[in-house]
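Budget justification, computational time. The allocation requested in the original proposal was used primarily to generate structure tokens for proteins on the priority list. As evidence of use, we reproduce two of the resulting records. The first is shown immediately below.
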Amino acid sequence: MQTFQHTISARAGDGFNVHVTFADGTGGVFDLAPYMGYPCYEPLRDRAFFEKVQAAHGTLAWPGEIDISPEAVWADAMRT
């Protein structure tokens, strides 16, 4: 059973926040700051690169195959 919604749109916000909309029409803000200590997310420290965020395959994605689990996006964004 799916306990999350796929991300259908994404827009970079302030800091490491991404404004997201889910398939069911709900939305929220996903805060990527807690993940920035992981080496795979190092390129996102460049603001111009961070702003290339897009909704792809139901989650957040950036060029270079950088993404995050859709479950994490849903859980964090729905807390806001």
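The second record produced under the same allocation is shown here.
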Amino acid sequence: MTIDEFDYELDEKLIAQTPLEKRDTSKLMVLDKKNGSIEHKHFPDILDYLEKGDTLVLNDTKVLPARLIGEKEQTKAVIELLLLHNISDNNWECLVKPARRVKKGTVVSFGNGKLKAKCLEEKDEGIRIFTFLYNGVFLEILDELGTMPLPPYIHEKLQDQSRYQTVYAKEIGSAAAPTAGLHFTKELLEKIQQKGVNIAYITLHVGLGTFRPVSVTKIEDHKMHSEYYHISQSVADLLNKTKKEKKKIIAVGTTSTRTLETVMAKYNEFRECSGNTDIFIYPPYKFKAISALITNFHLPKSTLLMLVSAFSSKEYILNAYQEAIKNNYRFFSFGDAMLIK
């Protein structure tokens, strides 16, 4: 399949620049993955599609304020770092702009020297390995000097940094939010539990894969960036029980989906495990783990659009996107939601 098969036209005015005042007031499109039929709802209506004994799976990763703007000590040139992955201790894999200005040995200073980063290794595609030098607690310094790494299509300043976190974010380590989860409030999650629906938390730390566009013509040639995941024993037991009882496993977001499918492909059951996944899901793919998917509306030609196309069909998804455009849905990270059932 070619990348152009996953393209569509979108007016820029439909790209959500800011979150809605209330998280759960977003629209919800409900797509039947088997026949392509569409319903237009609002996010709290998600309750109507969840049944007692189903399990809703949420990614509890927490976004680091991972974007740092500093200057080269030698030349004072402005350098931007995006922290992607903690390799060990104070050593991090980072995406750098402009990468051509940063060579091995380059020192970048932030906050008048409160934090410094020394380049240890140059890698491809603008990636560098840095060691960070500081006094104090690294995460506290990052909270002070860093900002949320909003995607490049968002041009408005985020007034409240917590709005780029889910209300259940816990395990710090992501370079981007699992945005399908941004629609949930604590009150809505309580209502879901009161209905007898199980809520399970897994972790996948979102990394470069989110920022990296597909640059090949044939999608089969694309390589996903590896990301860390973890599933606990209690969650594995719950998911196996849900499957055995023939109830639904509803993944919230493509990150939860990729984690669950990775584990099921590896073991043919859910197990307590941690590791790194570079699973790339595109049509045709036989899903082994999930029954339904809650997700946002994704960028043209993106791996996320390919994943949802694999779950339903490319034709149904692209038709649903045209319906969303006609009905003025808000797109991408701060946009509206879709349930594919």
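A brief technical remark on that second record: The first helix runs from residue 138 to 145.
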